[in-house]
Amino acid sequence: MKTFVFFLSFFMVFFFSVPISAENQPTFIIDAGHGGTDGGAVGLDGTLEKDLNLDLSLKLAELFYLADTDFILTRSFDDDTDGDPSSFSKRADILSRADLAAKYPSAVFVMIHMNSSTGKNDKGFQVFYGHKAAASETVANNIHAAVGASGLVNRLRDVKKAPSSVYLTEHVENTAVLVECGFISNEDDLRLLREPLYRQKLALVLFSALLDG
Q1: Among 94, 116, 120, 124, whose Cα sits 20 to 30 Å from the Cα of 43?
Q2: Is the predicted pLDDT of residue 13 greater than 90, yes or no?
């Protein structure tokens, strides 16, 4: 009960301190990475990246809903987006997400992922920005600043242009950011990311930063 009361107070103060003008806000496409048979990275304890991605994305979507801000989820269940329930094609899955972004060229495309590394000491939150739209870097910097000010994360890594190997940030024309919320291969990051309250707080910070963008 104490945890719930604390969260409710945190939510009320944070949410109502954010100036909201739905008329001036773009649509946000929230892309929960992986899904279905594609589990993504696997944490030290067997936690699947796809599950953390989806949970955080749904929390973020709920905040946009409460703020009367338009949003689209690439997935809202534990499934992939390749359009074929009988098998899985990574290429088709990625292309379907790109096609959705193309249908809403003025939308901000927000990719939610967890990082992983063979180095167990690698940890921290990082944002990458897309290649096509100049505004992508601005949104990435807004997120970086908001997360830094929140004091939530174990380490805040520098904002970078997304590697060309990331198809979506390389090809979508939208304002686009790839949010790597932490390393599930790192014990400290994973401990935080597994906590529902931490994910809710992180969703609030992302929400605020995106509305500022």
Answers
A1: 94
A2: no
